[in-house]
Amino acid sequence: MDNSEKNKRSYSVRMRTFAVIGILMSMACLMTFGAGFTLVEKAAMAPSEIPVKDSVASVEAFKEVYSVLMSPRCMNCHPSGNIPLQGEDSHLHAMLPKRGLDGKGVYSMKCTNCHQPVNTPGLNTPPGNPDWHLPPADMKMVFQGRSAYELAKQLLDPKQNGNKNLKKLIEHADDGLVKAGWNPGEGRKLPPLTHAQFKKAWITWLTTGAYAPKDK
Amino acid sequence: MITLNINKKTHRVDADPNTPLLWVLRDIIGLVGTKYGCGVAQCGACVVHLDGEAVRSCVTKISRAQGKKVVTIEGLSETNSHPLQKAWLDLDVSQCGYCQAGQIMSAAVLLRENKNPSEQDIDDAMAGNICRCGTYLRIREAIQLAAKDQKNG
Amino acid sequence: MEKNNTDYSRRAFLRASALAGGGLMIHFSSLASLVLPKNGEAVVSEQWSELNGYIKITPDNLIKLICPNPEFGQNVMTSLPMIVAEELDVDWKQVVVEMGPHDNVKLGSQFTGGSNSMRMYWRPLREAGATARQMLMQAAAQSWEVVLEDLTTKAGIIYHEKSGKKGSYGEFASKAAGIAVPKGVKFKAVKDFSVVRSSRKNVEGAKIISGKPLFGLDYTHPGMQIAMIQHPPAFGMKLKSFDASQALKMPGIKDVFSMKLYEDGFEQGGFDVRSFNELLVVVGKTTWEVMNARKKLVVEWMPAGDTKNTVGGRGGKREVVVPGELEDTDAQHTKMREYAAKPAQQLRKDGDPETAFKNAAQIIERTYTAPFLAHNCMEPMNFFAHVTAEKALLVGPLQAPGWTEPTLMKVLNLPADKIEIQMTRMGGGFGRRAYGHYLVEAALISRKVKAPVKLIYTREDDTTYGIYRPMYTATYRAALDADKKLIGFHLKGGGIPEHAVHANRFPAGAIDNYLAEGWQIASNITVGAFRAPGSNFAAAAEQSFLDELAEAMGKDPIDFRLELLKRAKDKPVGRNNDYNADRYAAVLQLVKEKSDWNGADHGKYSRGVAAYFCHSSYAAHVVDMVIRDGQPYVERVFSAVDCGIVINPDAAANMVQGAVVDGIGNSLYGGLTHKAGVVEESNFHKYRIIRMHEAPKKIEVTFVQNEIDPTGLGEPPFPPVFGAVASALYKATGKRFYQQPFLLTRPGLPSA
């Protein structure tokens, strides 16, 4: 309880600060948004990780992040509905597999019934990963249809991001399933950035204040 | 050599660990009830149970099946007594019959996890199995009949 | 006893295979176990007395009925023997059914396709049953020294009421087998039928649901190798050179070679169609090993250029040029539009259509198109062959052994009696397996590698090198006078490489001024039979057009058709109208009644209706569509069918339901396109097949009850589905759909 109270307070303080910056940045047509790092979290960070706020760099970094997240390799498993997407045109997955409560499919249509621990060789075969799944039903982490602003906000919201703090968010760049996007199986396009570029942009975004572009 | 447990029997198989379970079942062990339809997990003709899950054996390497229990249509029951098999016969579901083993193996997982499936549940569970003859309505009906049978004993 | 069935069948299968020395497929009905010796071995073949090609009986009164026609899901293995059982007068439970070998002398023409089985076999099988019964009675009359007229039969037992004597068919079977086949034997009256017209379960149902080896792909043989063919990547290409050194190093690989299917100048019959003549073959131990080795082939392909086929059969021997073009679907559409504007061949003309159109107050003109369709049989093409210098054994899925045998004789240089063809159960056929090139390929490969071989097509092979349903277009024009009366009708259809104009079909015969024309464009894309190939397009286009016409004329679509049919009946126009207007109208009236066409809950659905006659049977459907999750969904369907006497009603209903589902799927999603000769839909990820959630919740099938000799059911219920779906789509969306598949649009073409 104490912590959450504290969070709220520190959050509102920062919001005010950002609001000032926001005004300053208004000529660049940007709206800012800050990640709510608690003091405890800050204490846990190594000195080099302590955010140096830089809204321009942060927004630029998020643009790159967003281009990756909205590419089929990432978005296809972050659909707005309960059915994953498929292909470069992100159409509804053939045979309409359902998310299920745990994100792992339902009945005889569980993800891993087709998606193996590794990519199946050949064209048009199921890509693989040991942990293949969608976000669970209580934390859908939708990418499809989200604006950059909305997605940034959602990624940072502990209620929507699986309770991830900055450290965990940073670590998530190296998650096995995230990295699977760069090993998509034969015939599939890679995301627009390399994983290293993506990771750099992701960390830059998070550690420079986690600003997001204003919605057009 | 890879050791596989198939329909409660142990088989030692001399095959590349990357070989799909489908082809080991069909070409090496001689269990041909599991069918080849597409080879890319699109049609469901090759569904078998791997530790109870309806895996597509055309993309499931035998290395993944090692140490797990595989059940094929031949092992679903000894005397065609599974409620689904009985319902399939009662409603004379099959036309060409090629896809039906896969259909039954998929439906078996549904019935195990949901004793009273709705039409929506059936659609959700069975959309991965293609029947080119179009016996879907009878498959749906047979699953519901089997569910009733299962409930009544 | 039922309990032992599984084990028994399996052992019987193995034993029967051993007895035949080559793997004779024997199929027992589920009650076969009743007559089993304790050890479960198959009954020794010597005990069978053969009364004719279709009937064998043991002294124990086990009745074996031979099915002449190969089974691909239309249930002939049950329904054809039912006809024999009826006239033979046996209890269906006594019967075991066996798939016959290829033997045109004993078993007739043995062709599954064209909705022919019932039409072709109704009379021969009644005769087979009735004459065998008579022979058994004659044998009993001789043994008992009584007159034949005093004998009766019931359920496989012969009775002599006066003396109280009775005996089973089995007791007299061996004697009866020696009696000359009687002539002029009377058939049962339809009202006395006890097997036919009552629902009997699929004789192979239990084997299907327990995974028994029934299909060609399941067939195995000692020493059998697996073969696959690497085809050119596109229609219009051919093999230039290949390097197999890497492939040959792969585990399990025995041989890689190229060979010709037909030698130059080989005279092709109508069913010798094949996509490519030069085969690049990989042979090895297991399917997976051969699949992998194929990927290691280094192949150079080259444009084939224009080539020549020597074609025989109807029309005599002639050279046909196959264009070498690498075809594109968009270019095909453009070309079809060009041809549609040119003069075409007149196929039928009644009255003075030119004047009718000149004087018309209103002309309605609509153009319809449909893509190539692939069959997508769930069991891909495959065949087993074991060919030596002396003889050939071929086992697998095949619709028409009698059409491939002459080809095998020529290609293998063997006489017919040295070629044994066994037909396995087929995982779908839809016309595809009437083209036996794949067993000729298997035979040549076996001869070359001097070993038993099973040739397997992968799904991709099957889809991309098919014998497709052609690509079609048709323009329909109607002339209305100032009172909105239909005074002229013009159909001009074309296709690649053939058109789908059936000039003598409805509404020909119902309109005074009528013109039908056709044109075609040559192509290297191979085409052939496909569940009523031309009819399913014609029904889609014509029935859609009639729907639109009815609307323009302010008439109910069913009433409008009934008016035309009344005209065709009362005062038919022209000759050779190929339909019976009464039976046509009857299915429409029946579906109108069953669907409660004018009923109150009508408003919940977007309704479409269509009726069609083809392959000798009549079918009508009312399709009820809703928009679900933003997508059109056919929720229920009412079907009315007249195929004469319905042999096996529940199985017949199953087939109609299947045809409806197939029709919905193909009309909404089916289609094969080409880019530079390459088929763009190589597998089910792109070639969309209707799935469970897209199938209606209810399909209510009603058969017209009559005593007309039965006709087929494989095709007739399929074509009108397309038209009914198109009209329902119009009601659901407010848009007319002219281009199949209705729900997949192609950029650059009007979708509606």
Automatic annotation (TrEMBL), chain A:
Keyword Membrane: yes
InterPro entries xrefs: Multihaem_cyt_sf
Protein name: Cytochrome c domain-containing protein
Keyword line: Membrane, Transmembrane, Transmembrane helix
Keyword Membrane: yes
Membrane-spanning residues: 18-40
Automatic annotation (TrEMBL), chain B:
Domain 2Fe-2S ferredoxin-type, first and last residues per copy: 1-76
SUPFAM superfamilies: 2Fe-2S ferredoxin-like, CO dehydrogenase ISP C-domain like
UniProt keyword terms in alphabetical order: 2Fe-2S, Iron, Iron-sulfur, Metal-binding, Oxidoreductase
Entries under Pfam families matching the protein: Fer2, Fer2_2
GO molecular function terms attached to this record: 2 iron, 2 sulfur cluster binding; metal ion binding; oxidoreductase activity
Superkingdom of origin organism: Bacteria
Official protein name in the record: Isoquinoline 1-oxidoreductase alpha subunit
TrEMBL record, chain C:
Source superkingdom: Bacteria
GO molecular function, one term: oxidoreductase activity
Parts of the chain that traverse the membrane: 12-36
Signal sequence, renumbered to the chain: none
Record keywords: Membrane, Transmembrane, Transmembrane helix
SUPFAM superfamilies, sorted: Molybdenum cofactor-binding domain
Domain (Aldehyde oxidase/xanthine dehydrogenase a/b hammerhead): residue spans on this chain: 210-305
SMART domains, per database record: Ald_Xan_dh_C (SM01008)
Protein name: Isoquinoline 1-oxidoreductase beta subunit
